[in-house]
Amino acid sequence: MYSNLRAEMARKRIMITQISSHLKLRHATVSDKINGKFRFYYAEAFEIKKTFFPEHNLEYLFEFEENEAN
């Protein structure tokens, strides 16, 4: 899960629909990626950072935390 990305989205009130629309991906696809089901491609991560979070670096936004509960 990308907890830092989720936190920054909440701080700036950015919705998954905004990101999915910008990346031209389905809402469910972006949601799955944010929740850690699939990984973001570098180009997608860079575009999210550049467009929505230019004040943060990629390493911070896309630090991946494995979900312990299985």
Automatic annotation (TrEMBL):
This is Phage protein. The lineage of its organism: Bacteria, Bacillati, Bacillota, Bacilli, Bacillales.
